[in-house]
C-alpha cells in the first residue's frame, strides 16, 4: 500500500457499528505518484516472457490460496459478509488469477491473407489500467479487473471503496509476497472524489474499469471521453425472476430468497423483481413465506448466518425509504440492536409504476407481481432501464429459450440463479453497463489490437 497521506478513514464493522481499522486516505498528489510508479513498472512487466508472467500469476494465486481464511475473516468483519460467502469470494480471487494466468501465452493475434507479403495482428497491453471497486463485493470485483489486466501485460492501480478497503490492501501485499514486481499491482485506498477522479483524469491511465452506481458510472464515462480513455462499466440492475406456472414451484420458491437476499440484497445481479404467472401466484407466495421467514439473519461471526447486515447506516436508511408506501407481504427476521440491519422483506406490487418496482433498492427487499402469459412476462421484465441478469423458471424448454432470448439482459439463468462464473462472460445491457468482464475474452479488453503488414520485397 502506498500512502504518505496524513488523513485517515475509520472502517466500521456493519454488524455492530464498531470501528475495525484506521486506513489512510490517499491524496491527489500521492495518487499521481502511484500512477507514475505503475507507468515506470510497465515496460519490464510488458516485456517479461509470457511464461514468466504466467508463472508469477500462478504463484500469486497460490499465495492467495494460502490466505483464504485470513482474507475471509477480514471481509466478515469489514463488510458484514457471511463466512461462506467470504470464503467463496477469497477463493474466487484465487481462481480468477489462476484462470487468467493461462492467458499470457495465449494472447494470439491473427495472420490475415494479403497480396505481396504477410499481415499479422498483435494484442498489445494498454499501459496503466485503473480498477475502481464498490463496497458490495470487494474481493471478486477487484480480481475480475486486475487479473486479466495483469495477464495481458498491463500495470494496475486499484481503488477499493472507502468503506471496504481491507481485503484489497492485503491482496496487494500478497502479490508482492508472491514475487509480482513492485509497481505492477498498486492498491490506493481513498475517496472516489479524489483517487477515483484522478484515475479518470490522469493521462497515464489508459483504461478505467468501473463497478458501482449508474450515476457515478455516467460521470466516469463522460470523464474518460475527454481523453478517449477506454472504459468498462458494470452498473446497477433491477433483474427479473420469471416464474411460469409449469415450473417446479417448490424449487422456484425455495431458491428465490437466495437470488435476492444473498449479501443482504447488495448485489447488482439481485433478482429483485419476481414475476409469477397469475394462475400460480397465490401458491407461489404461500411457498415463498417459509423460505423467507426461515432465512438465518444473524451477525456473520456466527458461521450459520445466511444473511448479514447492510454496509452502512445510510444504506439502511435508503433501503427503509422504499418501504414507506409499500404493501409488505412477508417479513423475515433480523437481529435488533446496533449494526445496520434490515429484515428480508417481500413487497406485493400492483403496478409497474411503483418506485420499489422500478428503482434499484440494493437491500433485502423484493417486489412480486403477477403476469399473464409469455409475452406479458417478457414485456414486464424489459420494462426497466437496466439489463444485467435474470432468471426463468419453467419446464418447457422452448419457452425457456424464447424468454431467455427475449429478455434484454447480459446474464440469464434457467431454473437456476447462478449468473457469475469466472470462465463465462459477464456484463450488462442498457444502463447496466458497457463491455464484458470475465470469460475467455477478458484479457483482450485490456489490449489494443495492432495490425502489421510486411511487404515481401524489401
Ligand atoms: P458508487 O458511488 O458508484 O461507488 C463505487 C466506487 O466508485 C467506489 O469505489 C467509490 O468511491 C467510487 N467513486 C465514487 N465517486 C467517484 C467519482 N466521482 N470518480 C471516481 N470514482 C468514484 O456507489 P456507492 O455510493 O458505493 O453505492 C450507491 C449505489 O450504487 C448503491 O446503493 C447501489 O444501488 C449501486 N451500486 C451498484 C453496484 C454494482 O455492483 N453494480 C455496486 C455498488 C453500488 P467511494 O468508496 O469513496 O465512494
Ligand atoms: Mg457513492
TrEMBL record:
MF terms from GO for this chain are: oxidoreductase activity, acting on the aldehyde or oxo group of donors, NAD or NADP as acceptor
Q: Where is the composition biased (Polar residues)?
A: 1-13
Catalytic residues (positions): 234
Keywords, comma-separated and alphabetical:
Oxidoreductase
Aldehyde dehydrogenase domain residues are 4-452
Span-the-membrane segments of this chain are none
Q: Where is this region: Disordered?
A: 1-29
Highest taxon in the source lineage: Bacteria
Question: What family does this chain come from, according to its entry?
Answer: Belongs to the aldehyde dehydrogenase family.
Q: What is this protein called?
A: Aldehyde dehydrogenase in hypothetical Actinobacterial gene cluster
Q: Which organism is it from?
A: uncultured Nocardioidaceae bacterium
